[in-house]
Amino acid sequence: MNEQELEQFLATITPERIRQLVLELEPQQPKADRGTVPLWQILEELTKDLPITEAADQSPVEMRLRKAIIDAVGQIEGLTFVEGDG
Fold first, then answer.
1. Above 70 in pLDDT, residue 54?
2. Pure H helices in 26-54
3. Torsions phi, psi of 52, nearest 5?
4. What are the residues whose beta carbons fall under 8 Å from the beta carbon of 20, sequence distance 6 or more?
5. What's 72's DSSP letter?
6. Residue extents of the structural domains in the chain
7. Rounded to an integer, what distance in angstroms lies between the CA atom of residue 80 and that of residue 4?
8. How would residue 59 be classed by pLDDT, with cut points 50, 70 and 90?
9. 3-state secondary structure at position 76
């Protein structure tokens, strides 16, 4: 994935898209974790169809994607990003 492709992909990470993903993924959480969706699960869902297989390629993409997701969550009323320890 080159820089232009990455920028185009990051542009698709909108508050609406993240909100929809959270609404889809939250009911799949174990009962004790309902009301939450781990960031890793959102990352996994967003990157599952991307043509990146090497860790060296995946890491920079995920770092920028993490920031885009956190920024999007900050724009969604009723959602809060909570930094975990895992």
1. no
2. 39-47
3. -125, 125
4. none
5. H
6. 3-73
7. 30
8. confident
9. coil
